[in-house]
Every structure is written in C-alpha cells, then in structure tokens.
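Subject: Sanity check before I submit

Could someone independently write out the structure tokens for this chain? I want to compare against mine line by line before I put it in a report. The sequence has 122 residues.
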Amino acid sequence: MRTLYDFLIDEIFIGFLKQSPTLMKEITGFKGKLQIIDHQLVFTLPALFELTCQLFEKDHSSAPSRSRSDYLQFRKQLYSNPTNTLLQKQGGIVEIETSEMNHDDSIYKLICISRNNGASNL
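---
Independent answer below. Compare away.
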C-alpha cells in the first residue's frame, strides 16, 4: 500500500500542483466524485482511491486490489503519513471542504498554498 500512497503523492497530488497536462486530462475524464473546481482538486476519499488505482494500473501495468480492506489501508496511509508536510514543500495542501459522519462522504480539496493559506487537515 505504501507504493500506492507514494504514487498518489508524486503523480497525482504533485502532478496536479504542477498542472501536468496528462493528469489534468485524466481527471477531467474521471467518472466519480473527483473534479477540478476553481483550480482546486475536489474529491472524496473513495473517488481518490479509484483514480489512484486506475492511474497506477496504467503506469505500472499491474492492477492494485480495490477491495474495501485495501481502500481502508489506503485511507490509513493518508492519515498516518505527513501528507500535508510533503505537499507543502511542493506548494499545496489538502483541506476538508465538507466533513461528514461517514468519512467516505467527506469532501476534501487540494489547493495551491499561494491561493489560500488554510490549516492542514491530512
């Protein structure tokens, strides 16, 4: 699961901050609760997991498991690693947009720090 987390940080989050044309096209075509709104990547964690798995599979020619337990491990990686510390070094931060009792329904956003100096949530 660490490899998938590293892929998320390097290829998706940092790729988004750098406005990678290939990634932007993938995000635009993604069918799920993940989209670009006002230059921010807005997502639920299940949608982020699905996009990460799809792009990882394309990049590595191997399909990561998409079971519920794998999703929960992925979510745990987000919270147990210094996600925002890593992103801040690249000019971004993940914040909670809308908090819900069921974490799967909460909405997060990846923003460029220069646009908003908000607090860390991940």
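---
OP: Matches mine. For the report I'm noting this point. Residues 2-112 form one domain.
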